[in-house]
């Protein structure tokens, strides 16, 4: 499958707890941290729910 790289470009501070946990489960801790994931439906759903905080790049 294709892979995607996600980068945290906006802070999760002052966001609902659910969004904070989603960002954390994607493996993103600090601003500008990146993580690489397989492009499967569960990962894409998490990315879509916090897309306003992320920058997504296909590899």
TrEMBL record:
Keyword GTP-binding appears in the UniProt entry: no
Gene3D superfamilies: Ribosomal protein L30, ferredoxin-like fold domain
Gene Ontology cellular component annotations, sorted alphabetically: cytosolic large ribosomal subunit
Gene: rpmD
Protein family membership: Belongs to the universal ribosomal protein uL30 family.
Protein name stated in the entry: Large ribosomal subunit protein uL30
Keywords per UniProt: Ribonucleoprotein, Ribosomal protein
GO MF annotations, alphabetized: structural constituent of ribosome
Domain Large ribosomal subunit protein uL30-like ferredoxin-like fold: 5-53
Assembly and binders: Part of the 50S ribosomal subunit.
InterPro entries: Ribo_uL30_ferredoxin-like_sf, Ribosomal_uL30_bac-type, Ribosomal_uL30_ferredoxin-like
Lineage: Bacteria, Pseudomonadati, Bacteroidota, Cytophagia, Cytophagales
Pfam families: Ribosomal_L30 (PF00327)
GO annotation, biological process: translation
Annotated source species: Hymenobacter cyanobacteriorum
């Amino acid at each position: 499958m294709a892979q995607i790289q996600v980068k945290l470009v906006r802070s999760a501070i002052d966001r609902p707890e659910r969004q904070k946990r989603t960002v954390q489960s994607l493996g993103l801790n600090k601003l500008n941290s990146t993580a690489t994931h397989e492009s499967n439906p569960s990962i894409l759903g998490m990315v879509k729910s916090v897309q306003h905080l992320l920058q997504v790049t296909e590899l």
